[in-house]
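Hi L., both proteins are below.
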Amino acid sequence: KPDEDAQSSMVELRAGDIARALKLSPATISGHLRQLTEAGLIASRRDGNAIYYRLRNHLLMHAFQDLLLALQNEHASRISDKTS
């Protein structure tokens, strides 16, 4: 199934890797990951002592990317307005 193939090829990260990338504490990330899992937005799998997390829906990843791009454009626009 195409949807399952797209989801299975998605990036999986450990909580510690996510915390380092976002420059947040592991405890903070752990709490957020728990809430996102309970909301059904992310999935996790255990491999020995490690737990890997991934988005459950590849469309969410695209929506987040679009949101980040829109926020960056808005920020750039506001900075440009201030310097004009």
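That was the first. Here is the second:
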Amino acid sequence: RDLTPERIKYMLDANLNSAFYCASAALAVMRAQKGGLLIHTASMAGRVVGLLSGASYVAAKHGVVAMSHAINMEEFVNGIRSTVLCPGEVATPFEALERTTLP
């Protein structure tokens, strides 16, 4: 019910697009050196769909996990590996802050 085009864009930019931009920059260097390891941070929301995290966050984090799998399939010939850390839910004040400051 809280999704707006602005909030969706913010969530995807912060959690998915930023990971792609970082990976793209790092891959250019790693290809030249013929090796490297990318370590991404996603969330358990990137592995398990649930109501708590919200649709846009779950979609973004699933995207990060899928990106890492695709990088492994595409870049193994260049000696590049990719992995994702998926921490679980933690109690932080972020949820309250997010509700008051996001567009």
